[in-house]
Every structure is written in structure tokens, then in C-alpha cells.
Amino acid sequence: MITRRSLALATAGVAIASTARAQGTWPEKPIRLIVGYPAGGPTDFGGRLLQDPLGRAWGQPIVIENRPGASQVIASEAVARSPADGYTIFLAASTHASNAAVYARLPYDTLADFTPIVNIYASPTVLFVGKDSPYQTVAQLVEAAKRDPGMAFASSGNGSSGHFALEIFRRKAGIEVTHVAFRGGAPALQEVVAGRVPATFSTLSGAIGLARDGSLRALAIGGPNRVEVLPAIPTMAEAGFEIPDTSPWYGFIGPKGLPRTIVERISRDVIAQLRDTTIARRILDTGGVIIAEGPDAFDARIRRELAENAVVAREAGIRVE
User: Fold this and answer.
1) What is the DSSP letter of 148?
2) What span, in angstroms and rounded, lies between the C-alpha atoms of 136 and 126?
3) Which residue, 221, 241, 238, is CA-closest to 287?
4) Which of 21, 210, 281, 311 could be disulfide-bonded to 215 (CB atoms 3.0-4.6 Å)?
């Protein structure tokens, strides 16, 4: 006799078996890689770099879907609402760990609705001035800012990584500044190049061309170590203003409940690709730093940054409506 309980158990058994088969044979169809920023930027770069190598490793094409808007909130929501079957992956930037601190409401829970998979690489934040700036060191810039409270600093937008770096630096240096938020990194950098705004904190990957041609002068690296493409530039700590690492990162994240076997497969295969000298060289040449951080360490990083960003945003009054 078939009872309601036996039918429920049988249905559950079929579901478990189907999940097990899916995990064991993944991937069996193309994989959608959602990017929360337009094509051509530092986030998109990581996806394009790994698209073909991972496609060959997995025997399935990877289709990149750029869904820009609202500091990748639009893309994040799309991923949060996707099935946890490994066929939708989010190439997230580190604003994923700061949006909760600056937005009054989000259509998802940053921790509960996602599965961290692998942190791929980072692009150090760099303190830049224009080529004709009188400031040769961080100390000189700070001294000038103390003489002239309210000195303008540009950023790529309210709540951006550069904005957070500025607020952290401002408190460390004991200066008062005027934050000038632009709609993107390019216009912010151009204002500094033109000398209309004295300084900015920018991702190195977004400014590497201007740094190489001499349009921008780098004063210090916001990460913990010097970088290969600017070996003579000191870290903020070496310059006498030690601050937490403000380098934006770029990593793969899945919807909540993504099976651990798929998480580990993706993480393992991505890290293997990062050992390829051609891929590694392309990251380093654009000013990037290879992270290759697995799911557990990546999850810990996101949780730590969520807490840190909440404190900075609250103390600095950073809000995005």
C-alpha cells in the first residue's frame, strides 16, 4: 500500500539521486558566467581570460553575460535567484562585500544567498597624483592637505573601493578632505591627469596605461606588497601610513546551496589555470596580483570585509540611495 509518507520518501530519494548524478557529471551543458560590470573593465577581464581555458577543461562553452548596474547589485540578484546547479556562476568584484554597508536595502543576503567558490586575483588600490603635481611622496601630500583642509580627492563613485580607501587613509593621516565622486574610474582619472583634482585612489588595473605613459604619478600601493609593474613604488605602510589592504578582488561565487563537489571542482580547476605562466603573466602585466584562494578562505575574507566595511561606512557616512 502506497502511503503519503512512502510517496514523499520515494520522491526525496529521486531528488537526491538526481542531484548526485548532476554533481557527478557536471558540466553537461554550457555555463553562464554573469559579470556585474561592462565588457572591457577589470572584472570582465578575469572572465575573458579564463573563458576559453576553463571551457576546454570542462568540455563545455562558458557564455559571459554582462549585467552592469548599481555596483553589481543587478547581477548579484540574478545569481541569487538562479538554480544551485553549477550552470550559473557569478564573477564578482569586491563591492559584493561592501554593498551591504552602503545600500539601505539589498534584494538578497550577501552571506546567506551565495556560495563563495574561488578568489582569483586582486588589483591593488594605488594613491595617484597627476604628472605635474608638486607632491612626490605621501608625506608631502598629507602635509599639504593639513595646510589646506578640504583638499579634493576623486573616486570612481560613492561607495567604490577608492572611496573606502580614501576614508581609511583620511583617518589614518588625520586630514580633512573633499570626496569628489565620478561616474566611473575613467573620468575620475582624467580629472587628476588634467590637474583639476589633486589626487585619487584607483585600482592599478584601471590606471596602468596612464601610469606607464607618465600621465599619472603613483605615490603608494594600497596593498600589503609592492607590485611587479611598479617596483619602485612603496606600499602605504612603507610610506609611513599603514592601512588595511584595500585592493579590490575578483572571484567566482555561486548561488546558495551549490554542491560542495561542484564548488571544489571549479575552485581546483581555476587555481590550476592560474598556475599557467601565460595566464599568470597577463594578470601581472595589468597590475594584478594572483590570489588563488579556495572556498573556505574566500568565505572568511568576505565575512571579514563585510564587518570592516560596515564600520568604515558608518563612521564616514557612506550611503548609496
Assistant:
1) S
2) 14
3) 221
4) 210
Backbone angles phi, psi at 30, to 5 degrees: -60, 150
Neighbouring CB atoms inside 10 A of 106's CB total: 16
Give the span between the Cα atoms of 11 and 2, in whole angstroms: 12
210's grid cell: 596612464
Q: How far, in Å, CA of 250 to CA of 116, rounded?
A: 11
Taking only the tens of pLDDT, the chain with its 321 residues reads 445 454 444 444 444 444 444 456 999 999 999 999 999 888 999 999 999 999 999 999 999 999 999 999 999 999 999 999 999 999 999 999 999 999 999 999 999 999 999 999 999 999 999 999 999 999 999 999 999 999 999 999 999 999 999 999 999 999 999 999 998 889 999 999 999 999 999 999 999 999 999 999 999 999 999 999 999 999 999 999 999 998 999 999 999 999 999 999 999 999 999 999 999 999 999 999 999 999 999 999 999 999 999 999 999 999 987
Question: In terms of pTM, does the model score above 0.85?
Answer: yes
Domain membership of residue 234 (yes or no) is no
Question: Can you give the three-state secondary structure of 9-37, one letter per residue?
Answer: HHHHHHHHHHHHHHHHHCCCCCEEEEECC
Q: Give the CATH number for residue 149.
A: 3.40.190.10
- The tally of CA atoms less than 13 A away on the side-chain side of residue 319 is 6
For residue 227, is it within any domain? Answer: no
Residue 233 lies in a domain: no
Domain that holds residue 94: 13-123+248-316
Per the document, the length of the chain is 321
Query: CB count, 10 Å around CB of 4?
Result: 7
Same domain, 47 and 105: yes
Say yes or no: 278 and 306 in one domain: yes
